[in-house]
Amino acid sequence: MNKTQKGAWSILIASLFLIVFGILLFTEVVILKSLFISLHRFIALLLVCFLVPYFIFLFKKQSSAEVESDERDSLIAKRAILVSFVSVWIMLAAVCIVPRFIVGYAGSVPVWVISLVNFSIFLVAMFIYSAAVLLQYGWGGKHHE
Amino acid sequence: MNKTQKSAIFCLVTFLFAVVVIAYPFISIFILKSWPESFFSRIWSMIAYFVFIAASIIFLRKKQSPNEPDFDERDDLIKKRAVIASFVSVWILLAGVTVIPRFVVGIKGSIPVWLLSFINLGVFLGALLVYSVAVLIQYGWRGKDGEG
C-alpha cells in the first residue's frame, strides 16, 4: 500500500467517523434534546486510541521498495479530484433546491445551518475523493504492490 | 488556438457576461429600488444571451487552421491542473460563504432561501473564473504554446 492509498484510507475513515458523529450529535440536540456526555467521552477516548496507530500507519513504510508517489498515483489522484469536484456541484445544486421544499420560497435559513451544510458537503466530498482513489487501486492495493 | 483554449475563453466570457446579467437586476431592485419599465430593458439579457450562445457555438466549432488538433495529452493535463485549482478555489469560496454571513447578519441571524441560490451561483461563477484563468495561464494567454 503506497502513500496515496494510505492517505485515502485515512480520509475515508475520518470523514465516515465525522459524518456518523454529526448524525449522532444532530439526533441528540434536535430530536432527543439531551447530550449523552459519557458517550461523547467514550468517542473522544476511541479517537485518541485511533490517532496513535493511524499516524504510525501513515508514516511507516510497509516495504523499503515503497515509492512516495509516481505518475500513476498522480493520475489517480487527479481523476478522484474530478469525481469529487462533480459531486460538489451536485450537492451545491441540491442545497439550492432542497431548502425551498423544506421552508418554502419565502422562508429563511439560520446562518449556523449554512455552516453545517457546507461542512457536510466538505466531508462527503472528501469521502467520495478517497473512495474514488481506493476504487481505482482496487481497494486492497494488490495491483500497486 | 485549440479547443481547450477556446473553451477556457468561453468560460471566462460566460463569467463576465453572467456578472453583468446578474448585476443589472441586482442594481435595479436593491439600489435603484425600481424594476425597469420598458419591454426591451426587461428582455435585453435574454437577447444578449441568445446572441452570445450562437456566437460561442460558431467560435467553438470552427477551426482556426485545418491542422488544429481537437485534443491531445497536454490539453488533458492542463485541464486536470485547472480542475485542481478550481477545486481548491471552491473550498476557499465555501469557507468565505460560511464565515461572511456571520458578520453580516450575526450568528443568530438567518438568510432568505432565495439568497442561497445566488450565493451558490456566485461560488460556481468564481470556480468557473479560476478554471478558465488557470487554463489560459498554462497556455500563456496568447495561445502560441497551444498551437497544434
Please identify the structural class of chain B as seen in this structure: mainly alpha
Mean pLDDT of chain B: 80
Structural class of chain A: mainly alpha
* Helix content bin of chain B: over 70%
- Give the strand content of chain B: under 5%
What does this protein structure show overall?
The complex is a heterodimer of chains A (145) and B (148). With 145 residues, chain A is mostly helical. Chain A has helices spanning 3-32, 37-59, 71-103, 111-137, and one strand at 108-110. In chain A, 78% of the residues lie in helices and 2% in strands. The longest helix of chain A has 33 residues, at 71-103. The N and C termini of chain A lie close together (6 Å). Chain B has helices at residues 3-31, 39-61, 73-105, 113-139; one strand spanning 110-112. Chain B is built from 4 helices and 1 strand. Chain B has one domain (3-139). Helix content of chain B is 76%, strand content 2%. Chain A binds chain B through residues 78, 81-82, 84-85, 88-89, 92-93, 95-96, 99-100, 103-112, 114-115, 118-119, 121-122, and chain B through 80, 83-84, 86-87, 90-91, 94-95, 97-98, 101-102, 105-114, 116-117, 120-121, 123-124.
